[in-house]
Amino acid sequence: MADARVLIVDDEPDLVELVALTLSRMGLKSAPAGSVREAQELLQTDHFDLVLCDMRLPDGDGLDLLEWLQARKPGLPCAVITAHGNVETAVRALKLGAFDFVSKPLDVSRLRRMITSALKLSE
Question: What pTM was estimated for this model as a whole?
Answer without folding.
Answer: 0.93
